[in-house]
Amino acid sequence: MQKFEKGFFVGAATAAHQVEGNNIHSDYWAQEQLPHTSFAEPSGIACDHYNRYEEDIRLLADAGLNAYRFSIEWARIEPEEGKFDPAEIEHYRKVIACCKAHGVEPVATLLHFTSPKWLIAMGGWEAESTVEYFKRYVSYVMEQLGSELHYICTINEANMGLQLAAISKRFRLMAEQAAKAAASAGKSAEGSVQVGMNFQKMMENMKYAAAENAAVFGTPQPKIFVSERTPEGDLLVLRAHAAAREAIKAICPEVKVGLTLSLHDLQAQPGGAAFAAAAWEEEFTHYLPYIKEDDFLGVQNYTRTLYGAQGQLPAPQGAELTQMDYEFYPQALENVIRKVAADFKGDLIVTENGIATADDTRRVAFIEAALAGVQHCIADGIPVKGYFHWSLMDNFEWQKGYAMNFGLIAVNRETMERTPKPSLAVLGGYANA
Question: Which Gene3D superfamilies match (predicted)?
């Protein structure tokens, strides 16, 4: 094992809704309670990280990791429009202080998919007003906590809405086939997007969803962050990011700011070059004008996607698949870093990379291969400044519920007892004190 140089972040990542528990003012919480919800189960107490963060950060630090990426939950900070909760700011102040007490660099994400329920009722992520609402929230957080942070991710996977729109369109086409074929195709579609989604269940529930959403959000089609996004909504997210960056720099000019993108290693097979090029333009290149002033880019990658003469291809016959139906392909990370670095000239931080598997030996193998690729990139002069594994602990994988095992730490769903897996110490071994 080759350790990284001192100052390189070797960390793990979480998102508030997936680990904290009882995020009752959020849009996701509301959707989880719908009679015909697309969620496999509600988030509930999640991993109770809200109350157990000290134990979790200590486990991370004791294993040798030196950085922790977590998200600050907007729905906690501003549970009602214009009403900020100082007690919740103090909670996150304690999380930051706990990191520092253990020699861990806190890296905060200000929006990781979940939004306040009130924001969605006011038009959500297709409404122009959201840009200013987000800027106001970011300004409040920075005024309170900004001096205690060095790195901020404004928005997690700003491109996820477009990816979901493409997947949903493909899924609907497949769903027009016979029921048995649709079920099979649906599983394939779910495995091509880097977030836990239940497209089959969404299709089945569509006839009920409109009325239930209208009752909760005041609209039959609420525009949450991971709704299918229009091109206009896509650019609105980037304007929200730019507004947030402006606010952060005005209040704390020394803080380094970026966003994160969900990026696949897009590989063209014979006849697939045009499809792969178009997909990369949509997934990454068209964002470049909006992120060129950022201090860093958060690279998030889990697998590769193959394209042939007819478009996207399934994983190769006999390929190892993860619990999420992704192809086990840790080499993808190095390929994506190199491709991104050709166009984005700021620092790069791997803000998510990981694998859903119950077999921790495969997680160890994945980490070792992925980090070898990162080290190859650094050796070639690419400015990669950190690696955050997804995830610190087994948690709530959105619509998939608790069935996915992404964690470096196991969590007993009954007792909340934490059990570090061997992979946690393996990852920590790469850090230089």
Answer: Glycosidases (3.20.20.80)
